Amino acid sequence: xxKGIEAxxxxxxxxxxxxxxxPKFRSKQIIQWIYGxxxxxYECMTNIPAVLKKKLNEEARFFIPIVDxxxxxxxxxxxxxxxxxxxxxxxxxxxxxxxxxADGKPRRLTVCFSTQVGCPMACSFCATGREGFTRNxxxxxxxxxxxxxxxxxxxxxxxxxxxxxxxxxxxxxxxxDALRIINDPRAIDIGARHITVSTxxxxxxxxxxxKEPYQYTLAVSLHAALQSKRDQIMPRSKTASLSELxxxxxxxxxxxxxxxxxxxxxxDSFNDGVEDINALIGFCKGLHVHINLLPVNLVAxxxxxxxxxxxMQAWCAELARHGIEASIRNSRGSDIAGACxxxxxxxx
Length: 348
Fold this sequence. Notes:
Elements: H1 10-19, H2 24-36, H3 50-59, E1 66-72, E2 78-83, E3 89-96, E4 109-112, E5 116-118, H4 127-131, E6 133-136, H5 139-153, E7 159-162, H6 172-183, E8 195-199, H7 203-209, E9 217-221, H8 227-233, H9 242-256, E10 260-266, H10 274-284, E11 289-295, H11 311-321, E12 326-328
Parallel strand pairs: 4-7, 7-8, 8-9, 9-10, 10-11, 11-12
Antiparallel strand pairs: 1-2, 2-3, 3-4, 5-6
């Protein structure tokens, strides 16, 4: 596939324009047009010289992912099936808050974006893992997902989460370049503390992430604090033991000064027993973390089911009794297969 503008980082665009002999302000204009104003072609850039637009079209073509399908959940979430320049497809979810502002619009809009086409992690509770892995997404392909949701919903995104398809830390360099586009005031301009990256637990990248000079939020998909159970549902994470993961989370805190969110899906009769919560309490001892409890979402072809009603409330109370902050996270978009673990690149 030819190299398009989506392959370039902020710094890459600046270097590209500098190589063309353009003044420094020109790269700022290009960045603002693409990621700030969200235009869909170079032709829309009214203050860019025609000769430069022609050169960019020839050497760094501009492609906007095509919305192949869009579904609206009864809870207001929207799932988009997007086709990329090479014909590969990904899914993105826009989640408006239920709270409304004075203008009647949602106060917040969260975009859950993908970082890979498919995923190599093969977690048993995740539909994406059943699709296998095709390729990494480029920085602009990640950022454009947010712009597509913004255009469709008619409002600016306030939060971005790398929790869609793929393991973000297996596409680290492109991910960081994408986060800078999402955060940059000239581009999408979402505050770093409102940008979250979720990982299955890639040890070395967790530690590296802690050294990044931005206040991004880290979320770790834990889902079991007993090694044998975690290995069963997250087989590709076996190379990283829970003890190594705990150490990496602590190192992250020491480097970044920010606590980690631990994601824990409660699966009926599997990871929701007394030994499981005791193991989770033990894992959290000495760590600066917050627990997000959520029900596992139904996935076609899987026998897993969410824990019985009341389990999450009981777990929240028990964790609080041990001084561990926890909250219950409601899944959004489950009726359109748009919730955590349900994305699989399929139209309605």
